Amino acid sequence: MKIALAQINLTVGDFEFNFHKITSCIKKAKTKNADIIIFPESALCGYPPEDLVLKDSFILTNKKYLNKLKPYTQGILCIIGAITKNSGKTFNSAAVIYNQKILNIYHKIVLPNYGVFDEKRHFSPGDSLYIYEWKNMRFSVNICEDIWQENSITKQLRENAVDLLINISASPFSLSKLEDRRKILSKRAKQANAFIAYCNLVGGQDEIVFDGASKIISPQGKILAMAPQFQEKLLFFEIEKGKKNKKNLSIRISPIKQIYQAIILGLRDYIRKNRFEKVVIGISGGIDSALVTALAVKAIGKDKVYGLIMPSQYTSSGTLKDALKLCRNLGIKHYTLPIKDIFNAYKQTLGKTILLGKQDLTEQNIQARIRGNILMAFSNKHNCLVLNTGNKSEISLGYCTLYGDMVGGFGLLKDVYKTTVYKLAKFINKISTPALIPKSIIRRPPSAELKPGQKDEDDLSISYVVLDKILKLYIEENLSLKEIIQKGMPARLARKIILKVDRNEYKRRQSPPGVKITNMAFGKDRRMPITNKFTGK
Amino acid sequence: MKIALAQINLTVGDFEFNFHKITSCIKKAKTKNADIIIFPESALCGYPPEDLVLKDSFILTNKKYLNKLKPYTQGILCIIGAITKNSGKTFNSAAVIYNQKILNIYHKIVLPNYGVFDEKRHFSPGDSLYIYEWKNMRFSVNICEDIWQENSITKQLRENAVDLLINISASPFSLSKLEDRRKILSKRAKQANAFIAYCNLVGGQDEIVFDGASKIISPQGKILAMAPQFQEKLLFFEIEKGKKNKKNLSIRISPIKQIYQAIILGLRDYIRKNRFEKVVIGISGGIDSALVTALAVKAIGKDKVYGLIMPSQYTSSGTLKDALKLCRNLGIKHYTLPIKDIFNAYKQTLGKTILLGKQDLTEQNIQARIRGNILMAFSNKHNCLVLNTGNKSEISLGYCTLYGDMVGGFGLLKDVYKTTVYKLAKFINKISTPALIPKSIIRRPPSAELKPGQKDEDDLSISYVVLDKILKLYIEENLSLKEIIQKGMPARLARKIILKVDRNEYKRRQSPPGVKITNMAFGKDRRMPITNKFTGK
Q1: At what angle do helices A255-273 and A418-431 cross, to 10 degrees?
Q2: Which contiguous run of DSSP H or E holds residue B119?
């Protein structure tokens, strides 16, 4: 039986676009004589549709396109995700269509409602398995989370002696996912003693990126075939009942390469799916903006990336030189716009009322916000998306200026710790000849350069290495101060950092979306109250 | 049996503060010889704790304070909300404590997971009712949503012939809630033929305000006693089994008064619970900022409210006069800071590169962002919370400047349509002598005054009356374009408006939180994707 896995990049709400992509895959699969073609979860409408599901018109459009699909299924069994409604209940479904007829509509049984998922908000759970015998193969169809839980489904599948388990998914990327999926699929294949055909979505949607990596697993739990991560692929594989296949693909991909690819795809899709063409970035001469600019050039090409260099009176000549060197290395159009005169105008206007006494954080923030204003002005005039350059370490602490360096429509490093920023920069230099990011940028101690001699690690009185360790324990592992200290972290600093993370929730609430990379990203993944006096003591 | 309903204002995560408030209520209730004291849902930790519930240390702290409460319950039955954990499952619970012993811990059965609620994300459902006989009364305890659904609980209560149904709640305010609750409580009382003691939380928490209005309902479904909305109250009521009480309190309160009180309480609590003391507002001479300033003065007093008047070269002398008059009427400290010089500095710096060609929206946005920067500078120097003045109509359409007039920590009018803004302004003038908001402000056609002769309703080419009708149908009732046209709205305008609402989700995602007023507020209540091509055609 020849299976086609259609790992495709769909757009939420763009039924017409999705439908054309789906039917062109069916046509291709037919020319290759595939027996079955499998599409991802919610393929017709894109995933996650969020509260669009609460609109009747949205459900009706799903139904309309599901019916439009029927004529294309002559001679090929098509399994595809769609949202359906029945007796007032909305389901996350998989339609099984063959020879122009809908044979079955399976409803997802296990609805994820944690992390970035809200499926219990949107769907009712299904309650029955679907098993179908066709061309001498017994197969079942289920959806994403259905296969992740050890439950009665696992047992029933074994008892029903299926040959093939089809799982359609929209499983978002995070660093552990590739291996997590391999483990779970391998385990389920062995438990059911069946092949698994796993078709995952690919593409970016706001905060999340689907990484694909669709695969065929043998009843022995081995990977027989796999589509690449972060790319579209129509993958064909012929399975033979009873035949033992010794193949076992290795799927090790370095974490840094995965992060790199996730950001590139996330950015590319955010731009394309939101009708932008170009981006603009404030280039400081520091590592974060250098990395973001290099990533943007990799994602959409140098002709669509603009750099604004906006030195203040505290910008060192070395930093300025590095900023210019970076732009030249990358070959992007750039403008140098010193902010001193504008800053002086603020000082003039506010001098007698607001800016009294000694300079403090206020004056630093005014400068950061002048830069934000200039970036947005450029964005307005040229219809460019402003890319935010904040990294996870500084966003965690609120070491960033709301409406200043926090401006932007999309944040490439929102879920990338500062220590990983350096690794990514080195990775980009390794895969490019000549190196794109000047070494002096990578070497210089990070600084906001908004006051004389400022250095991040002095301001924070902690090294980024220790900081990132504490942040991971607090944010990703949800440990308390006590538990973090027990892991060997310095008590006084850990206490200070936790307090900063908690107190700066209000800033993050107004920050642009960015690609989820870790197992706990800011945004939908982590829903903390702003008003919160819990200190964990 | 004498019942005390403790309708109190608690803070999320502030166990020590909440505990002291709770125990002082118990002490008072004892002096009044109450038999039972009832506290709101999640009283120990505040509601909603959101993802704090995922921290083990948070659950343990709940447990610790629950145990600390025992000694206070000598001679008084205490029913109180707490988060508990049992065999790895987390529950939203009601503890029944008497004579220093925990008699029972009931687990909420029906978990709301719609609108602003995420309870299936955080809790496992309970599975059994709790019925207890005490002092010749059979009573049951349940929690908020448990009573809203017609289900097996209703049936079991009737069969078990309880005399008193105790419901502890954290039911957020929206305009229909007072009447919705009356209806449902009245119906359940009659179904169970039992008294209902309903204790609701009061106070603001980020986007939501709990309005209290705790009550005692007779078995005939009549309101025997009710605590006021939006205020703390320890309400006492003696119920007698079998005694028919003919009382039936009327609870009609005008919608505008409810909105007014909700905003006042929401603002007051956001300020207090987030360690602010003062607020600053950009005062334009228009109706939105006038209303916000008047509301702020009502909420925290004129000494804690600062106004910044920031005229541009397009500000008319009438507008400027009105802004000054408003500040004098309200008696607040204010500064006039013309933005012309700063704007000229931007034009100078950006003239040769960015601001080429004809003036357009870019120049308007630069000015709005200069004002944003000045407000934030004031906030930084004086540790003031910046209040956002955007109303729901303009936020819906994206008729506002990101990082410009959209700055702020809290938005008073985020869920208030422009037509309601006028009603609220008139209401404030009615309850104040002399009138606070100058009539000329209420009368002048709204304008951003960022270009010569600009008027909102020209820019939008629609009157606010029609606009607000279309927005309500689209946002609150989730109707499609077709359905909106069928309701008699102009087709071309409705299409344009819907498109604007959809396209501006990215702006709202970066907007400050504001008080939920309607049945569908922006924020947690309405979770739409930014990347979304569904047009509903």
Answers
A1: 90
A2: helix B119-122
Long-range Cβ pairs for the range B130-138 (8 Å, 24+): B130/B96, B130/B104, B130/B106, B131/B160, B131/B162, B132/B96, B132/B103, B132/B104, B134/B77, B135/B1, B135/B35, B136/B241, B137/B1, B137/B163, B137/B164, B137/B241, B138/B162, B138/B163, B138/B164
Secondary element (H or E) of residue B467? helix B464-471
- DSSP string over B346-380: HHHHHTTTTS-SS--HHHHHHHHHHHHHHHHHHHH
Task: Please report the number of interchain residue pairs, chain A to chain B, with beta-carbon separation below 8 angstroms.
Answer: 251
Model ipTM over 0.85: yes
Closest CA to A143 of A125, A121, A160: A125
Three-class SS of residue B105? strand
**Calpha distance B517→B416 (Å, rounded):** 7
CA B245: distance to chain centroid? Answer: 34
Q: Which residues of chain B have pLDDT under 70?
A: 537
pLDDT digits (tens, 9 = 90+) for A6-31: 999 999 999 999 999 999 999 999 99
**Residues of B designated as active site:** 41, 108, 144
pLDDT given at position B299 = 98
DSSP output for A496-526: HHHHHHHHTHHHHHTSPPB---SSS-SBTTB
- Tell me which residues of chain A, numbers 478 to 497, contact chain B at a CB-CB cutoff of 8 Å: 478, 480, 482-483
Q: What is the identity of the amino acid at A110?
A: V
In chain B the domains, ranked by start, together with CATH numbers, are 2-245 (3.60.110.10), 259-456+504-509 (3.40.50.620)
pTM of the predicted model as reported, rounded to 2 decimal places = 0.96
Which token pair is B304? 């804690």
Chain A residues whose CB is inside 8 A of the B510 CB are 510-512
Query: What's phi and psi for A456, nearest 5 deg?
Result: -50, -55
CB contact under 8 A, B513 and A530: yes
CB contact under 8 A, A273 and B348: no
Alpha carbon of residue B14 to chain centroid: 19
Chain B positions touching A528 (Cβ under 8 A) are 50-52
Which of the 8 DSSP states describes residue A227?
P
Mutate to test the interface with B, among A113, A403, A485, A522 (most CBs of B within 10 A): A403
Residue in B50, B58, B534 closest to A13 by CB: B534
Cα radius of gyration rounded to whole Å, chain B = 26
Q: Is A338 on the interface with B (CB under 8 A)?
A: yes
Catalytic residue ranges of A: 41, 108, 144
Cβ contact, residue pair B344, A345, below 8 Å: yes
Q: What pLDDT score was predicted for residue B154?
A: 77
- Which residue in B has a C-alpha nearest to residue A338's C-alpha? B349
Q: Cβ contact (<8 Å) for B51 and A536?
A: no
**Which residues of chain A, if any, have pLDDT below 50?**
none
Question: CB under 8 Å to B377, separation ≥6 — which residues?
Answer: A346, A350, A354, A355, A362, A365, A366
pLDDT of residue A153: 77
Provide CB contacts within 8 A for A328, sequence distance 6+: none
Q: How far is CA A405 from CA A367, A372, A396, A511, B404, in A?
A: 10, 6, 14, 10, 14
Question: What is the structure's pLDDT at A244?
Answer: 77
Q: Please give the DSSP secondary-structure letter assigned to residue A389.
A: -
Helix (H, G, I), strand (E, B) or coil at A91: strand
Longest distance between any two alpha carbons in chain A, whole Å: 86
Residues within 8 A of B (CB atoms), A 387-406 only: 402-403
Is B433 near chain A, with CB under 8 Å?
no
Q: Name the nearest CA neighbour of B218 among B261, B249, B256.
A: B249
Tokens of B475: 């946002």
Task: Give dist(CA B142, CA B119) in Å, integer.
Answer: 15
- At B448 the pLDDT is 75
Alpha helices in A199-339 (DSSP H): 255-273, 287-300, 317-330
